[in-house]
Amino acid sequence: xxxxxxxxxxxxxxxxxxxxxxxxxxxxxxxxxxxxxxxxxxxxxxxxxxxxxxxxxxxxxxxxxxxxxxxxxxxxxxxxxxxxxxxxxxxxxxxxxxxxxxxxxxxxxxxxxxxxxxxxxxxxxxxxxxxxxxxxxxxxxxxxxxxxxxxxxxxxxxxxxxxxxxxxxxxxxxxxxxxxxxxxxxxxxxxxxxxxxxxxxxxxxxxxxxxxxxxxxxxxxxxxxxxxxxxxxxxxxxxxxxxxxxxxxxxxxxxxxxxxxxxxxxxxxxxxxxxxxxxxxxxxxxxxxxxxxxxxxxxxxxxxxxxxxxxxxxxxxxxxxxxxxxxxxxxxxxxxxxxxxxxxxxxxxxxx
Length: 352
Ligand SMILES: Cc1cc2nc3c(=O)[nH]c(=O)nc-3n(C[C@H](O)[C@H](O)[C@H](O)COP(=O)(O)O)c2cc1C
Description:
The chain contains twelve helices and twelve strands. The protein has helices spanning 38-49, 81-92, 134-153, 168-173, 188-191, 193-206, 223-236, 263-272, 288-296, 307-311, 315-320, 345-351; strands spanning 8-10, 13-15, 19-21, 54-61, 97-103, 117-119, 129-131, 158-163, 211-217, 240-244, 279-282, 302-304.
């Protein structure tokens, strides 16, 4: 039986337990220049001190014009390295492994960032969308690789490519959004060409010991496609798969009747059974008992809990020491952190 507290080695790096703090954009912490602020550093210091073995820093933009919002952290220039190093040091000081998520918003680039939303293909229903030229794809490829080089210089142990939630790399992978007729569209191998070239470029420049993770959309568009994508990514040399959703709510996989988790966790478990690299499951795992069950029954290698660790920065230590946690209030219609972390009722409880 594997315990939540068991360490695991990946590429020579020891991760002290199976709890991941997954990427969570801190809305309004950074400014339009994408520079790290004291608030960002404090946020990650606190979560790393809270005990998670692997911290994946929030979606960080590889290109200014591909951000998901004007306050997103950036990694598109050398100038970002110093601030990002403050975050990686804060994480590693707590003996946690530090990765950072590299991101381009693609079709989801808002007008406040760019007049156009660049994507594999233009969408009729989105007048701002533009299909990328080969030169622009080349620029994006180089920007992701440069982002990884900046991350390594900033002291991170690895990067996670954001290939989920309907953002650019997810759009390339899925046949529903990628209608290209050149070498970047068509069969799966072609649809994954950009991801493959980015992974190969990062490996070449950052070396064999640098972790490359991929957050994938399991339903891109179906779980059957997700399984094939996972197998391809393993072939390309990805070290950790983080299984989330593809930003598409049609044709969701059906979970078995007695299965107690949602379809995203089910997809993580299914993909884990099809690959030989570590897999992180995420989404509404919610409680210590459920997290333990997934690890103790060898369903996946890691559990990622986002909102529970926003609500209780010491969630991991509390769980590993059998202490009560400060429970997330599951705000509806969505988590208050999307608007302002000061509005989080669980955090308010903690400080009062
Ligand atoms: C405020 C907020 C910001 C998020 N930002 C990101 C992000 O930067 N990148 C990403 O891949 N997912 C992001 N997510 C999704 C989380 O990583 C996670 O997948 C999701 O919250 C489900 O996990 P949970 O049920 O444990 O919260 C965000 C979620 C929240 C609540």
